[in-house]
Write a structure and sequence with these properties.
There is one protein chain. The protein has 147 residues and is mostly helical. The protein has one domain. It is 93% helix and 0% strand. Helix 1 packs antiparallel against helix 2 (124-146).
Length: 147
């Protein structure tokens, strides 16, 4: 074999080009690995954020459940209090009606008796008769009103 310096230079140049190509490919591979690593780290952060959000939502749901329970209890208590208030109002109305009736009756009878007292001007017997008659009349009016 003969030694050809040009051929050797060509071979060396090819080897050098191949080595440069391999280095470029290696750099590209390293860049790809770095980008993938960066993406994986971002994915890890996103997963942590999602887990944190999920925990926050769970706490909110629990708090809202407690608030809903409290609202339900308040509604039940309010319902009972309203029923008691209605019963008390009905009793008050009944007592008020009885009181008004009693006051009205007392006014009618006492007015009648007061008119009967005017009969005493004509004398004791006329006055006593007028008093009894007007009182009985007033009582009759009261009985008629109640029916």
């Amino acid at each position: 074999m003969s030694y050809n310096p040009f051929e050797q230079d060509i071979n060396e140049e090819k080897e050098f080009e191949q080595q440069e190509q391999q280095e470029k490919e290696f750099e590209v591979d390293i860049q790809i690995i770095r980008e993938r690593n960066k993406d994986i780290q971002q994915l890890e952060r996103d997963i942590r954020d999602l887990a944190e959000i999920q925990m926050d939502i769970g706490l909110l749901i629990q708090e809202q459940g407690e608030q809903i329970d409290l609202c339900s209890e308040n509604i039940i208590v309010t319902e009972k209090n309203t029923e008691e208030a209605v019963a008390n109002l009905e009793k008050c109305e009944e007592y008020n009606n009885k009181t008004n009736s009693l006051i009205r009756d007392v006014i009618i009878v006492s007015s009648s008796a007061g008119l009967g007292c005017l009969g005493f001007i004509g004398g004791p017997f006329i006055g006593l008769g007028t008093l009894i008659l007007t009182t009985l009349t007033g009582s009759g009016v009261v009985l008629a009103i109640r029916q």
